[in-house]
Write a structure and sequence with these properties.
Largest sheet: 6 strands, mixed
Helix content: 25-40%
Oligomer: single chain
Number of helices: 10
Strand content: 25-35%
Shape: elongated
Strand order of the largest sheet: 6-7-8-3-9-10
Radius of gyration: 22 Å
Length: 301
């Protein structure tokens, strides 16, 4: 169906010996990029593996394009380009060209011309054995295999890990071009805030298996601001929206509701010296700080 979400995840739960993922719920409409951001061990890779039916959830439901992976696994996977954190091509003794031929067999929309053009563009030697490639070169191969299958959805788990700056820029350009016609989707797990800034429409924060929030990126950045104020002692409790106060250099307040905070500061006659945007990594740190505090009021969820 045209208005069906590209992906819908409902109360997904998976228990591991020392870790629980979930419950995680989200959905993504056609034509958008979702960036999943979180520290190591937050559950991003585990979630991607469940999405690709590599492992089975204990609870919950996953649908792609309105259908369950358990009912139509082959057809759905043929529409998804998946780049794993630990490349599945690592131990292959085949040459790059041999591996691509095997890979292409499974994907009816394989674009041979695109693959061959990107071998040159990414400086990949098709005669090299995959197992002899550097980590960064394996990432180039994995990314371009996914792109050449002409998918409707890209699942990218730390795709830029090990890439040099030139290959990283090429990858960003290709993802942006992939999204141009408004019919495709990307779900990107990343530590690289610049990737989120350049690519994402939505941001989901993960920590210790929990999804701490799912936000439209521009709205999130508009609502979070830092205020440097001219006051020796400002009570966080008296200023709505403030989630952290930094007194290392002056007095800097970080607010998740910038408009309310600014109004309160002015109403209390507290001079504002500077208002600045808050970077996504600092927003994540605030989420984690509140999640870790047993007495915190978790408004951010």
């Amino acid at each position: 169906m045209k208005d069906q979400p590209v992906i819908q995840v409902t109360r997904l739960v998976k228990d591991y010996p020392d870790f629980r993922l979930g419950p995680v719920s989200f959905q993504l409409e056609r034509g958008y990029v979702l960036a999943i951001v979180g520290p190591n061990g937050s559950g991003k890779t585990a979630m991607f593996q469940l999405l690709m039916n590599i492992g089975q959830p204990d609870q919950g439901e996953i649908q792609f394009f309105g259908e369950s992976m358990t009912d139509r696994e082959l057809e759905i996977k043929q529409r998804i380009g998946y780049v794993t954190e630990n490349s599945y091509v690592d131990e292959q003794a085949w040459r790059v060209e041999e591996f691509a031929s095997f890979y292409a067999y499974w994907y009816p929309n394989w674009n041979k011309a695109s693959w061959e053009a990107n071998l040159k563009r990414y400086d990949i030697d098709p005669r090299r054995k995959v197992k002899d490639l550097s980590k960064g070169m394996k990432r180039r191969v994995g990314f371009n295999l996914a792109m050449a299958q002409n998918p409707d959805l890209l699942l990218l788990d730390e795709p830029s890990s090990g890439l040099d700056p030139l290959a990283w820029r090429l990858m960003l350009e290709d993802i942006q071009q992939f999204m141009v016609d408004g019919t495709k989707n990307v779900i990107l797990a990343t530590h690289t805030i610049e990737e989120v800034r350049r690519l994402a429409d939505y941001v989901a924060f993960m920590y210790k298996g929990q999804m701490l929030g799912f936000y439209e990126k521009d709205t999130l950045l508009d609502s979070w601001k830092s205020f440097t104020v001219s006051a020796e002692a400002v009570s966080m409790a008296s200023i709505p929206g403030v989630v952290r106060m930094d007194t290392y250099r002056g007095c800097r307040l970080i607010s998740q509701f910038a408009q309310l905070t600014e109004q309160a500061l002015r109403a209390q006659g507290i001079p504002i010296l500077q208002i600045q945007s808050v970077e996504l990594d600092e927003i994540l740190a605030c989420f984690i700080q509140i999640e870790a505090s047993p007495h915190a009021h978790k408004e951010m969820k």
